[in-house]
Each structure stands twice: as C-alpha cells, then as structure tokens.
Amino acid sequence: MAAMAVTAALTGCAGGGDKGAAAGEGAPASAAAAGKTVKPELTVGAVRSDFREAVSAAGTGRLQFVDMGDSVHPCRVYGMSQAEDSLEPKAVEPIRNTLKEQGWQETGELPVEEPDAFGWVLKKNQWELYLAAGETPEGSWIIFDANGKACGVPLPSRPAASETAPPERPTPPALR
Hints:
Low-confidence stretches: 1-33
Largest sheet: 6 strands, antiparallel
Number of helices: 5
Strand content: 25-35%
Number of strands: 6
Structural class: alpha+beta
C-alpha cells in the first residue's frame, strides 16, 4: 500500500504526560518506592485515546489502528487516518494543538523524504510520537506512530547470556 511510503520515515518512542489514573495510567512501583518524582506511565489505551480525540477535533476522517502482531514492541501504537482533501501543514494544526493540550510536547519537525509529506516529533512521558501526513496514490493520510519505554506492561527482556551463547566445546580426555 502506497500509504506505507509516507510512513517509511516513521518509527517511534515518546515521553511526557499527566492524564492521570482516569486515562489508565499508573506509577511504576519501583520509582514510587525509591521516592523519586516520576510521571505516571502512559498506557497504550491512553495513547490511542489521545489520537482518537485529536482526529475527532480535526474532523479529518476515521482513525484506524494497525495491529502489528505479537512480534512488535508491546508499547507501540500505529494509527492512520485518511483525509478527504489534500493535506497541507495548516490542515494538521487542529491535531497538533489537541495533542499539545493533552500534554504532548512538540520537539521538532520530522524529516521526511517524500516531497508531499511533512511531520513532527512529539513526546509525552516516556513515549515519542512521529506524526506525519502526506499524499499517496490512495489519497491523503495522517500517520501516528508512537513507541513508549513504559506502558503498564512488562517489556521483553534480553535473554540470559547462557541462552544465547553456543554450547561449550567438549573437552577431549587427557592422553596418557
């Protein structure tokens, strides 16, 4: 699908936020026990809710979330919305403004290779969002690609060295 061409520059991980427990967030126990001031984790559901609200405020079209399967990082949210009209950066302002009201902080522009595409990088808690928009043969698309370092679920850990190292070579018996 050519809409994926718009997303070639997208991969993400974001941070910052203060929606609170009502949005499905919870503070990590280890940070709370250590007495550190840590913003609550932002759940996948809360990130999706932020995106739904932003698309609704902009009236750009139906937001679809892509199921990336079990092989992808558990703190990843990928969504896209097809716009009816050709997109310009000004048309995406309502989405950006709504995300900023929700605590997402814009940290810069997203470098994109396509001439008709543009985008921004936003952060909230331990999440980073790549927000991009552009034209494809299938129409105009707005892409949300966010990754988090904490989302209320255990993250995959690295396997122990003993699980990844090759078995030891057998030692030949001593010759007499």
